Input
Amino acid sequence: MTIPDLPSPLTETAETVLKRRYYLKDSEGRILEHWETLCRRVAQAVAKVDVGLPDGGDLGERFFTMIHSLDFLPNSPCLMNAGTDLGQLSACFVLPVEDSMDGIFTSIRNGALVHKTGGGTGYSFSRLRPKNSAVQSTQGVASGPLSFAAVFDAATETIKQGGKRRGANMGVLRVDHPDILAFISAKEDQTRFTNFNFSVAITDAFMQAVHDDEDYDLINPATEQVMDTLPARQVFDSIVERAWRNGEPGVLFIDAANRDNSTPQLGEFEATNPCGEQWLLPYESCNLGSINLAHYVLKGKVDSKRLADTVRLAVRFLDNVIDCNRFPIPEIAAMTQKTRKIGLGIMGLHDMLIQLELPYAGKEGRAAAAEVMAFIRKEAEQASIELAALKGPFPAFDPQHNLYPARRNAALTSIQPTGTVSMIADCASGCEPYFSIVMMKNVMDGDRLLMVNKLFEQVAQQEGFYSAQLMEKVAESGTVMGHAEIPEKWQEIFRTAQDISPEAHIRMQGALQKSGVDSSISKTINLPSTATEEDVRTAYLLGYELGCKGLTVYRDGSRDNQVLNLGAGAKEKTAIISSSGVLMEKATLPDVLSAKRYRLKDVNQSTIYLIVCFDEEENPMEVFAKFPFDNRVDLKDKSTMWTTTCRLVSLALRYQIPMGEIIKQLDRSSGHRLDLPAQLSRLLKSFMAGTHHGFASSCPECAGHLVFEEGCETCRDCGYSKCA
Output
């Protein structure tokens, strides 16, 4: 590996993410590149498309500078695969699911090929006939969309995306499909459909029926006949109740999306990519990239000229990606070349607003965000029009149907998740506010590292309210709000996602959507744990009213665990004397205990369940390990080892040995972050910290804390994302 010629702009966290996920490695796992060589690999591969054009000579160097400086970053598949033999550079795809066995399993095969090369897929199951309807070819009955969704889920579990990105899917069902109630409640059991985000495609007609408190029709897609009717408000309430419980299903406003369909002659939108920001026609794909708005504030104002230059260069880059892309199947290549859709988005919006000294949650902050997004959209369209003059418009352009002038790309802007990419750029992700400003990160040997947002630290130093004690207080409380040492102005400006009202979140999404987003926006409407179902209902109604094309809500803690049994009784204690003469008491437990179950993977990626039982004071008292197939010969020794370890930990807990001592011994015994001692240690640490988040809120790769933003669970320590 060569020594970099240029100073690196990266943080230590960014380097860690790149080493783990992005840098090319040899067959022995040795890293072959660094940030500069990665950027040159990507820039040169994408610039080759324009060799021979009048302005193509310095394009590679311009692309390189834009990426290396972190002004703009393409999506992860492009960073990983550009200039390699794999060469698949797109992030998201939508595949059709036809109402036939051949069509269904063709889609499963195509999805596997997409996942293998690093993409995520969206599927609409709305064309499939409902459960128990007649199948004339076999004289039998249909098993329904959910049964086939389970097959898609199992296939995704098997395929690991290029060894770097895990499979991710969006599953969509129209609200007027006869199986809609089963779909709404399908993820009540959080161990099912774990590779899917589920969203209901909601129509204007349904929303009108909700408003008018009327019934609406359920239509069999195979016959186009009305099968039944349902009260719209009751169905809407079911969606709300499930979303309140665990964040799913999300909602997609499908008619709003189709009103902005720039190629209606090719068909209607049915589904989105996994995080909902890209509405795509069947077999379409989209390559994404994001401008780092944190870099475009100069002397308290947005640097419009430099931003315009970056927008135009980014459009050229993303358009070139289409031509140097190696698509997984011919149908995707043909459709993508026909419409040439790109998704130019943003990250670092909160950083920009902080530098402008504008609160994210206020009207002025929304106005500034909308103005910048409109500016990006205007410059992107002009760049696309000029590219059309140079290279020709997208082949499907039809003046009679298209809503826009002749341009190179059928769609230009979206706001996508940038969880890992924004970690590389060291800025807030997408259009989200920061999730935390000061946080404690657990490091080796039980030590904790205080991590302070660089802008907050800078302001605190300049304004004279910085102190180590204050930073620790902010980290402990999880918010800058309510600390007398911090001036109110800066409390408002540094409000984090949990401190911002659901209405303010939605109004920001609506402002961005209306001002300058062709496709859609991946954003999470964060709700406090105390939020009610009425809060979720209000959020959905407001989002629809503001013209949003989809919404995801997440109530804090709602996905953290799953209760198996309820009930508690007074514990009895048995006293014994240890060999050193110390009195030790063993708790005698009642017949019924509260329990929580955690699903995890071991070193070999085998699924294992840990079940933790608690006393009436929510102290862990017993731990059990359960393998899905305990009778498998290859798991027998492993199951015995896990069972024995759990019994010993349970015994230590019941004798009230200090949890810190148990954790210390587990850490010393751990040889891998995914072996049993490490997994148990991480879980017990979460109980000691009082978080009770368990494995659902712990990163499966680095044991960091998962946050729910941009419609997905993401680790801000290592860049792991459930959806990427």
The radius of gyration is 26 Å.
